[in-house]
């Protein structure tokens, strides 16, 4: 039986899904959470049961080894070679990768070489790919790029207003990220609307540990909040989101602990966002516990988080000149009733009204009132199935080689 693994390494998580292909049957799925943090967890789900355990996971490489152990342990596979394909989400493809590719040593080196475009992710993605290449050398290995979906952005959106030389010679531009997720939920939304995707204007809000908002016109990304790297845009778990770049030299001049621009960027990537302001955690669940206990920093971090989401969503009403739907997805977007309520209520002027009875935990589908001009939907993202489908395409191609 042919099995395919879809691997989605986030900055602090590694999600996996084991498929029987080409049926797209999910045999099992799981997640390693809080990688590199205290109390890391592994969850394996199959046959309607979830098996969770706390286990120290230092990095993504270790998570891959643990994953293979779990598959054998739970009798999901008997031997490694049952897995004939592995698809990897890769965050940054730069201008080089406009679609999914078969992983070769050269491709792997290229993914590493553009790590400056996704410093939290590409190294984790590359480490995952390498670990699998060693463990499963005969499996078809495919890289699926998060930036590919955003290659439809017009120049006016993706160029930065700096001298042309920096685009022409250094490829400095907005690339965006989370493209597979924005693409998937926009396609699913068209099914909810029962209208052709080409006729819809959508704002998709992928809000997880990393977060990005996209403006999607007729199924094509025309703008997105992340930029040259996934540091841009809204506030995130550990990332600042958009900043005035003048802060960088100012901090280097004034804080003796920060010596280089890279030191400041590391600070913005790893020590900022919800973590930096709350001084509690980068995780929304921890933040909300502290907020509800009256912790002032946690309250501020939560308010800032909602504020930045509102600003970007409001911008995209402008970019699209109106929208049919706002879609919430990813860890926070799918599960956090309060964030959705605060964002939508704060943007009611745009014609959105939430239905409290629908805006509950575990909801999928519409959460707005029947009279809401802009429909608000919760759609669980499924980047994994898109990845598995791309692996399948390459399995067919390589079978003819
Ligand atoms: P992701 O990166 O998509 O896996 O999302 C991770 C984020 O989702 C973390 O900040 C989690 O705290 C948050 N999250 C997951 N489940 C919940 C929940 N039930 N309520 C609030 N936030 C959640």
Automatic annotation (TrEMBL):
<protein>
    <recommendedName>
        <fullName>Acetate kinase</fullName>
        <ecNumber>2.7.2.1</ecNumber>
    </recommendedName>
</protein>
<feature type="active site" description="Proton donor/acceptor">
    <location>
        <position position="146"/>
    </location>
</feature>
<dbReference type="InterPro" id="IPR004372">
    <property type="entry name" value="Ac/propionate_kinase"/>
</dbReference>
<keyword id="KW-0479">Metal-binding</keyword>
<feature type="binding site">
    <location>
        <position position="8"/>
    </location>
    <ligand>
        <name>Mg(2+)</name>
    </ligand>
</feature>
<comment type="pathway">
    <text>Metabolic intermediate biosynthesis; acetyl-CoA biosynthesis; acetyl-CoA from acetate: step 1/2.</text>
</comment>
<dbReference type="GO" id="GO:0008776">
    <property type="term" value="F:acetate kinase activity"/>
</dbReference>
<feature type="binding site">
    <location>
        <begin position="331"/>
        <end position="335"/>
    </location>
    <ligand>
        <name>ATP</name>
    </ligand>
</feature>
<feature type="site" description="Transition state stabilizer">
    <location>
        <position position="239"/>
    </location>
</feature>
<keyword id="KW-0963">Cytoplasm</keyword>
<dbReference type="Pfam" id="PF00871">
    <property type="entry name" value="Acetate_kinase"/>
</dbReference>
<dbReference type="InterPro" id="IPR023865">
    <property type="entry name" value="Aliphatic_acid_kinase_CS"/>
</dbReference>
<keyword id="KW-0547">Nucleotide-binding</keyword>
<feature type="binding site">
    <location>
        <position position="89"/>
    </location>
    <ligand>
        <name>substrate</name>
    </ligand>
</feature>
<dbReference type="GO" id="GO:0000287">
    <property type="term" value="F:magnesium ion binding"/>
</dbReference>
<feature type="binding site">
    <location>
        <begin position="283"/>
        <end position="285"/>
    </location>
    <ligand>
        <name>ATP</name>
    </ligand>
</feature>
<dbReference type="InterPro" id="IPR000890">
    <property type="entry name" value="Aliphatic_acid_kin_short-chain"/>
</dbReference>
<dbReference type="GO" id="GO:0005737">
    <property type="term" value="C:cytoplasm"/>
</dbReference>
<dbReference type="GO" id="GO:0006083">
    <property type="term" value="P:acetate metabolic process"/>
</dbReference>
<comment type="function">
    <text>Catalyzes the formation of acetyl phosphate from acetate and ATP. Can also catalyze the reverse reaction.</text>
</comment>
<feature type="binding site">
    <location>
        <position position="383"/>
    </location>
    <ligand>
        <name>Mg(2+)</name>
    </ligand>
</feature>
<keyword id="KW-0418">Kinase</keyword>
<dbReference type="GO" id="GO:0005524">
    <property type="term" value="F:ATP binding"/>
</dbReference>
<keyword id="KW-0067">ATP-binding</keyword>
<dbReference type="InterPro" id="IPR043129">
    <property type="entry name" value="ATPase_NBD"/>
</dbReference>
<keyword id="KW-0808">Transferase</keyword>
<keyword id="KW-0460">Magnesium</keyword>
<feature type="binding site">
    <location>
        <position position="15"/>
    </location>
    <ligand>
        <name>ATP</name>
    </ligand>
</feature>
<dbReference type="GO" id="GO:0006085">
    <property type="term" value="P:acetyl-CoA biosynthetic process"/>
</dbReference>
<feature type="binding site">
    <location>
        <begin position="206"/>
        <end position="210"/>
    </location>
    <ligand>
        <name>ATP</name>
    </ligand>
</feature>
<comment type="similarity">
    <text>Belongs to the acetokinase family.</text>
</comment>
<comment type="subunit">
    <text>Homodimer.</text>
</comment>
<feature type="site" description="Transition state stabilizer">
    <location>
        <position position="178"/>
    </location>
</feature>
């Amino acid at each position: 039986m042919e099995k395919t693994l879809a691997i989605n390494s986030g900055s602090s998580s590694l999600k996996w899904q084991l498929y029987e292909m080409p049926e797209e049957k999910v045999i099992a799925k799981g997640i390693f959470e809080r990688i590199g943090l205290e109390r890391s967890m592994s969850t394996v789900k199959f046959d309607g049961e979830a098996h969770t355990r706390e286990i120290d996971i230092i990095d993504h490489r270790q998570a891959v080894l643990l994953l293979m152990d779990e598959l054998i342990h739970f009798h999901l596979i008997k031997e490694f070679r049952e897995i004939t394909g592995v698809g990897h989400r890769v965050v940054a493809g730069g201008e080089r990768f406009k679609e999914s590719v078969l992983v070769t040593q050269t491709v792997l080196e290229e993914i590493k070489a553009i790590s400056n475009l996704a410093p939290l992710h590409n190294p984790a993605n590359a480490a995952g790919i390498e670990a699998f290449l060693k463990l499963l050398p005969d499996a078809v290995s495919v890289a699926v790029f998060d930036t590919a979906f955003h290659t439809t952005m017009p120049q006016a959106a993706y160029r930065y207003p700096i001298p042309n030389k920096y685009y022409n010679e250094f490829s400095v531009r907005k690339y965006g990220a989370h493209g597979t997720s924005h693409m998937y939920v926009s396609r699913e939304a068209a099914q909810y609307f029962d209208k052709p995707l080409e006729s819809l204007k959508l704002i998709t809000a992928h809000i997880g540990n990393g977060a990005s908002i996209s403006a999607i016109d007729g199924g094509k990304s025309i703008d997105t909040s992340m930029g040259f790297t996934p540091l841009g845009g809204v506030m995130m778990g550990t990332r600042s989101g958009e900043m005035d770049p003048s802060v960088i030299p100012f901090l280097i001049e004034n804080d003796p602990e920060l010596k280089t621009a890279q030191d400041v960027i590391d600070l913005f990537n790893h020590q900022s966002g919800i973590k930096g302001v709350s001084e509690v955690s980068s995780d929304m669940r921890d933040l909300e516990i502290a907020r509800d206990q009256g912790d002032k920093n946690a309250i501020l971090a939560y308010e800032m988080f909602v504020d930045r989401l509102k600003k970007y969503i409001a911008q995209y009403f402008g970019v699209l000149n109106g929208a049919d739907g706002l879609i919430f997805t990813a860890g926070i977007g799918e599960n956090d009733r309060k964030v959705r309520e605060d964002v939508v209520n704060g943007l009611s002027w745009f014609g959105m009204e939430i239905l409290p009875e629908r805006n509950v935990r575990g909801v999928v589908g519409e959460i707005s009132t029947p009279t809401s001009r802009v429909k608000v939907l919760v759609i669980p993202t499924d980047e994994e199935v898109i990845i598995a489908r791309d692996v399948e395409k390459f399995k067919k191609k390589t079978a003819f080689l």
